[in-house]
Amino acid sequence: MRIYNLTDNDDAAIVAQQGIFQVMEWKRDFSVTYGSAMDAYYASEMNVRRRQLVCNLNGKTGAVTNESAVKPEYVGNGVVVLEPTYRHVLLLDPSQMGGAITVNDGLFYACETTIQQHAVMVSRPSAMVAGGEGLFNLSLMGQGTVALESPVPASEIVTVDLENDELKVDGNFAIAWTNGLQFTVERSTKTLIGSAASGEGLVNVYRGTGRVLLAPVAANLANPNAGSGAA
């Protein structure tokens, strides 16, 4: 099968490639209206561009993509192109990060079928359940490529390596972390009264030995259109 005017389009560029995946970025968007042309131009100048994940299946490897709560598997020969996103796409290999990683809820995009998946329950204060916070994150294990949707490019990802240490993050800034770390959500002070008096709430805590990938300039990992913040 031959495909024309996709990855070879003059306005498309392959900005990352690993395993069966290619990350294609559209440098300019010509499918805009007269009224939105100016916004589209300045968005492109600030690197706000449409990106698509291209999966080149080779008959031996399948791809698992995220569509709502269902993750269908595609196996065979051919090409699968995922829907456009304005987020950045990160390509990771869990085997290069201790063999297993946990990703923040909602950031999973796709992976090769050599990657095993299972849900991990997060230890959270009971008040968070009523607040609508998620109770599970996705753990990915094995050798192969994982694609994650990120609110920031790889150049803005901050890596923190812990060795029998503790990292507290005031905000939902972690992209992924190695499974050797214990992850909990805790109150920022030991007592409810102290927490209310200090004006602080809950923090994400990572304990042990491992690695955490942070996106400290992203205000909200669940909403890529939100304003910037700090960890």
From the 3D structure, determine the CATH topology: Double-stranded beta-helix
Which shape, going by the Cα principal axes? Answer: globular
In total, the number of strands is 16
CA radius of gyration: 19 Å
CATH superfamily: Mitochondrial biogenesis AIM24
What is the gist of this entry?
With 231 residues, this protein is mainly β.
Question: What keyword list fits this structure?
Answer:
mainly beta, 231 residues, Double-stranded beta-helix, disordered C terminus, 3 helices, 9% helix, 16 strands, seven-stranded antiparallel beta sheet, five-stranded antiparallel beta sheet
Question: What do these coordinates show?
Answer:
This protein has one domain: 4-Layer Sandwich (Double-stranded beta-helix), CATH 3.60.160. The chain has helices at residues 37-45, 126-130, 192-198, and strands spanning 12-18, 21-26, 51-58, 63-65, 73-74, 77-81, 88-92, 100-103, 108-112, 116-121, 136-141, 146-150, 158-169, 174-178, 181-187, 202-214. The chain is mostly beta strands. Strands 8, 10, 11, 13, 14, 15 and 16 form a 7-stranded antiparallel beta sheet that branches. Helices cover 9% and strands 43% of the residues.
Topology record:
Layout: E1 12-18, E2 21-26, H1 37-45, E3 51-58, E4 63-65, E5 73-74, E6 77-81, E7 88-92, E8 100-103, E9 108-112, E10 116-121, H2 126-130, E11 136-141, E12 146-150, E13 158-169, E14 174-178, E15 181-187, H3 192-198, E16 202-214
Antiparallel strand pairs: 1-2, 2-3, 3-6, 4-5, 4-9, 7-12, 8-11, 8-14, 9-12, 10-11, 13-16, 14-16, 15-16
